[in-house]
Design brief:
Residues 2-339 form the FAD-binding domain. This protein has 469 residues and is an alpha+beta fold. Among the domains are: 3-52 and 109-191 and 291-368, FAD/NAD(P)-binding domain; 195-288, 2-Layer Sandwich (Alpha-Beta Plaits), CATH 3.30.70.2450. It is 31% helix and 22% strand. The chain has helices at 11-21, 56-65, 69-75, 110-122, 174-180, 256-264, 270-277, 323-339, 347-370, 386-399, 403-413, 425-433, 442-447; strands spanning 3-7, 26-30, 53-55, 79-82, 88-91, 94-95, 104-107, 127-130, 134-140, 145-152, 155-160, 163-166, 188-192, 196-203, 215-217, 228-234, 239-246, 279-280, 285-287, 292-295, 306-308, 314-315, 377-378. The chain starts with a strand and ends in a 22-residue tail after the last helix. The chain binds flavin-adenine dinucleotide.
């Protein structure tokens, strides 16, 4: 009889638990928090007050691990939006043409996503959860983890396991737990652009259609000024969420006036004009200190029986929107590795190396951009420099109006294509040639979306035909 303990019942923990359940006899999730019965906020998930996009790569991984889950999400009101077909987007270098690519996002509240995933994981009894259980430390030795010590209202308890998976999120104490077992300190890479999120929920104005596109305005690195951006996204139950974000020195304010002003100053007042028609549905919430940070467990002689997954292993600046999708892809890798021979010696090092590969791709994507923001603090040598910044700007400028370029860029960003998709001769040639059409004005970009209808005082043209050329 084999037993796995999963520490933390967030998205990574729940998906890891389901990945284990095919191979391990007993899978128990230990969660410090208590889970609500409905898709509502919980204390252990403070980031749930902010917008969460699930990339196509994450959608596909979740559906492979838990077939039917994505349909349940859509049935509960989640939206699918093509990139950039489905949402008015301004990239780092300009407004985007409404081009149909292979990339898409799934949009719903984090609370709904976690609620449905949790229900799916727990539905057949193969995974059980113990709530209000805080994990204090690991047991075992530097060569083998044998379980954990927990604390509940009734005192401390030692639990035995053949495999322990740490999914306790950004605040994971695994580095200290491992040094207590005699391992050296794990190396931690940090690139910190000082990102702050400020968000608010809204009731959409009456008459808003289900195909409301939303607006995404990205930060522009490499200008010497702080990066600032915003995303107004349609959610389930006729709600919108607006998240404003800024890097060090350009943090969005969290008072009513400042919030609306920051939205208004993002290249065009469209977001401010839209929320002026909507009804606030909650307070303005702030989340500070969100660096890119990855822990290099794959470089340690990690003890058998211990794996680190999700934000506990690598947590990135959320403007890149990859955290949950990466967690889902890592859980899928865990399932696949277990399918190839079950629990076995050295398995965990192999799994951790695979997790590091997946995390590494997302890390490069995030830090390539974040290193171009001013006053960035990093303990690793940053790649690139001025030439790389110029090349990134050219990719972004060309991608605004070139399908092949933007298809590759969003394919990589949505975690369905490898980085090499942006290195092919055809891609590089297109980027060197540069944009073949003039940049769109904000008005032209907005006019591509008749779905805004009369929510805006300024107009949209008739619905354009899909541009796949
Ligand atoms: C402002 C913001 C916006 C974001 N937007 C996006 C986005 O658009 N797209 C995206 O993909 N990602 C986004 N992210 C990142 C995303 O939230 C994380 O990648 C994701 O939550 C990682 O899941 P996780 O399960 O690893 O950690 P978490 O979701 O943080 O879960 C950790 C769990 O462990 C529990 N726990 C902690 N310590 C213990 C303990 N000692 N014992 C027992 N239980 C414990 C916690 O209660 C919690 O339930 C955003 C993050 C932030 C901060």
């Amino acid at each position: 009889m084999t037993r796995a303990l999963v520490l933390g019942g967030g998205l990574a923990g729940m998906l890891a638990a389901t990945a284990l359940a095919d191979t391990v006899d007993s899978v128990v999730v230990l969660e410090r928090d208590t889970f609500p019965d409905a898709p509502v906020p919980r204390r252990g998930l403070p980031q749930g007050h902010h917008s969460h996009i699930l990339m196509r790569g994450g959608v596909e991984a979740i559906d492979e691990l838990l077939p039917g889950t994505v349909d349940l999400l859509y049935a509960a009101g989640a939206k699918k939006r093509g990139l950039p077909w489905g949402a008015l987007a301004r990239g780092p270098e300009g407004w985007m043409e409404r081009i149909d690519t292979d990339a898409y996002l799934l949009l719903c509240s984090r609370d709904l996503l976690d609620h449905i995933v949790r229900r799916q994981v727990l539905r057949d009894g193969r995974v059980t959860v113990r709530e209000a259980v805080k994990v204090l430390e690991l047991t075992g030795s530097a060569s083998r983890v044998t379980g954990v010590v927990t604390e509940t209202g009734e005192g401390q308890e030692r639990l035995h396991a053949d495999l322990v998976v740490d999914a306790t999120g950004r605040g994971s104490n695994a580095p200290a737990w491992l040094t207590a077992l005699g391992l050296p300190q794990v190396r931690e890479d940090v690139v910190d652009a000082g990102i702050t999120y400020v968000s608010r929920w809204f009731e959409a104005p009456p008459g808003t259609k289900d195909d409301f596109p939303g607006v995404m305005i990205q930060m522009t690195p490499g200008t010497g000024k702080p990066g600032q951006g915003a995303g107004l996204l349609p959610m389930e139950d006729g709600r919108w969420i607006l998240s404003l974000f800024g890097s060090r020195g350009g943090e969005p304010p969290n008072d009513e006036d400042g919030f609306a002003r920051f939205a208004r100053e993002r290249h065009h007042p469209i977001i401010a004009d839209l929320i002026a028609r909507a009804t606030p549905a909650g307070p303005i919430r702030t989340y500070r200190n969100i660096p890119d940070r990855r822990r290099r467990y794959e470089k340690l002689a990690l003890p058998d029986g211990f794996v680190v997954i999700g934000d506990a292993a690598s947590a990135l600046n959320p403007v890149h929107g990859t955290g949950m999708s990466v967690a889902a892809q890592c859980a899928r890798l865990l399932r696949d590795e277990l399918a190839g021979g079950g629990l076995r010696p050295k398995l965990t090092r192999r799994v951790q190396a695979g997790i590091a590969r997946i995390n590494g791709g997302a890390w490069r994507l995030a830090t390539n951009t974040d290193q171009g923001l001013p006053a960035v603090r990093a303990n690793v040598r940053l790649q690139g420099g001025a030439l790389a910044d110029r090349m990134a700007a050219r990719v972004a400028r060309t991608g605004c109006r070139d399908r092949d370029v933007i298809n590759a860029v969003f394919g990589v960003a949505s975690l369905v294509k490898p980085m090499t998709a942006m290195m092919s001769p055809a891609f590089l040639l297109a980027v060197l040639r540069g944009p073949r059409k003039p940049a769109l004005t904000a008005e032209q970009a907005i006019a591509q979306f008749p779905e805004f209808g009369d929510l805006l005082p300024y107009g949209a043209s008739d619905r354009p035909t899909r541009n796949t050329a």
